[in-house]
Amino acid sequence: MRKFLPIWFVLSLLLSGLLHAQSLEESSPQSPMIEIESDRLEVNTLTGEAVFEGNVRAKKDAITLSSSLLRVRYNPETSTLSSLVATGEVSIAWEDKEASCTEVTYDLESATMVLSGDVLITRGPEQISGQKVIMDMASNRQIVEGQGGRVKIRVNTEHESGILKWEN
What we know:
This protein is mainly beta. It has one helix spanning 4-26, and strands at residues 35-37, 40-44, 49-60, 63-74, 81-94, 97-107, 112-123, 126-136, 141-145, 152-154. Strands 1, 2, 3, 4, 5, 6, 7, 8, 9 and 10 form a 10-stranded antiparallel β-sheet that branches.
């Protein structure tokens, strides 16, 4: 029995390494890069704020955001992004979903995105609408608020609905 222990140990290490490599291949790689383009950029290195104005387009992996203005806050000491606030006819496209609203706030540290102002999220014929949508990507929790109006949702009852699935 003791002579098989080293063989078992080596086999278990190889097997776990192969399983880990396979899981890495199956998951889609996330890039740490974000690309932003606009008509104008103003950066204040003292406050750690960058303001992109005019025809703003930001892209990270499969997510594309368009807006009139994008305010990016970052830590001046480490240069790491902490939040993004987009305003003015905001549209977001990712995977097979699209969203439109008047403002989006994305807190990178808490992985929370808040869409506000005539929010409409579509996935094919499915829709969610309200005045405010809060997406907590860390806990996979979403809250849709009417704020004086009604929350409306249209989902397909014959197939699995993907409109309610939000992942970072």
